[in-house]
Design a protein that fits this description.
By secondary structure, the protein is α+β, with helices and mostly antiparallel strands. The chain has two domains: about 1-235, Hsp33 domain (3-Layer(bab) Sandwich); about 240-290, HSP33 redox switch-like (CBS domain Like, Alpha-Beta Complex), CATH 3.90.1280. It is about 35% helix and about 30% strand. Helix 9 (about 255-260) packs antiparallel against helix 10. The termini are far apart. Bound molecules: zinc ion (ZN). Zinc ion binds near residues 239, 270, 272 and 273.
Length: about 290
């Protein structure tokens, strides 16, 4: 089971969230038949979104991340719930780009370097809380670091990674978020900055060890870290035939009649999990009668 490990340093000057989202990322790759670059983009976004969702208080709280850059990916949408469920979709999952000159996947080229990230937090209030920030590089971790700094005034370290084996399967995926407390003493902050400056990439660390404690030690070697709890993370799409019926009902009687006359079966598609729902003419007639009371 994938999870997020949460904790603090012994002095309680910063908190950390370590995400292991390997299986979730492999599942997203299979559902959307994604290229490696697309998988890296969605995988990185899933890890940080799952971390952000784990900070939410109520079980019904949800976070929606929309990334719209000027690259070939099109729009990326990811929904993470505080219970750990994640669903995601991207307009063009199949597109593969050549590796960058440093041998890494070109996630920034795929997403695009110009664009916007919109983060909606649904806290069960009338209106969701909306945060917006421009993309910095399209490489995801930098974009979220910038978002935390500007939109939430929260200095943060974001280190995300997705690594593939030679057969193209996701070998490891996840990341770490570190956020400082407002009253962190200067010498602790300096030490933390030193660790961060020489921090290896998440994939380097994850490649060397599967053990979360060892991963944390490799990422933040100067600190004693206390783990507090562990939250599950898993793929979950909440679509259903009932929800599709609600969407059809919202079209109104006339539109439903047009659909009914056009085809023997009307197909409704869930973009998150690629499930198709079929409605026969009889089904539509029943819905029309429902609309007309
Ligand atoms: Zn679905």
């Amino acid at each position: 089971m994938n999870h997020i490990l949460r904790g603090m340093d012994r002095g309680q000057n910063f908190r950390f969230f370590l995400a292991n989202t390997t299986e979730l990322t492999e599942e997203m790759k299979a559902i959307h038949q994604m290229s490696e670059t697309a998988t890296a983009a969605l995988g990185r976004t899933a890890a940080i979104s799952a971390i952000m969702a784990s900070m939410m208080k109520s079980l019904k709280d949800k976070i929606t991340v929309q990334i719209q850059g000027d690259g070939p990916a099109g729009r990326l949408i990811l929904v993470a719930s505080s219970t750990g469920g994640i669903k995601a979709t991207v307009d063009h999952p199949e597109i593969e780009l050549p590796l960058k000159t440093n041998g890494k996947l070109d996630v920034g080229g795929y997403i695009g370097r110009e664009g916007e990230m919109i983060i909606l937090r649904d806290l069960g209030l009338k209106e969701p809380y909306v945060g917006r920030s421009p993309l910095v590089s399209g490489e995801i971790a930098e974009d979220f670091t910038y978002y935390f700094a500007t939109s939430e005034q929260q200095p943060s370290v974001v280190n995300l990674g997705v690594l593939f084996d030679k057969d193209g399967r996701v070998e490891t995926a996840g990341g770490i978020l570190v956020q400082t407390m407002p009253d962190i003493p200067e010498e602790v902050l300096a030490q933390l900055e030193k660790d961060v400056a020489s921090m290896p990439t998440f994939t380097e660390v994850a490649q060397n060890s599967e053990d979360p404690t060892e991963r944390l030690r490799a990422l933040l070697p100067s600190f004693e870290l206390d783990c507090m709890d562990e939250m599950p993370v898993f793929w979950e799409c909440d679509c259903s035939r009932e929800r599709m019926e609600q969407a059809l009902l919202a079209l109104g009687g006339e539109e439903l009649k047009t659909l009914m006359d056009e085809d023997e079966t009307t197909e409704m598609h869930c973009h998150f999990c690629n499930t198709n729902y079929h409605f026969s003419q009889e089904d539509l007639l029943r819905l029309i009668q429902e609309v007309n009371g």
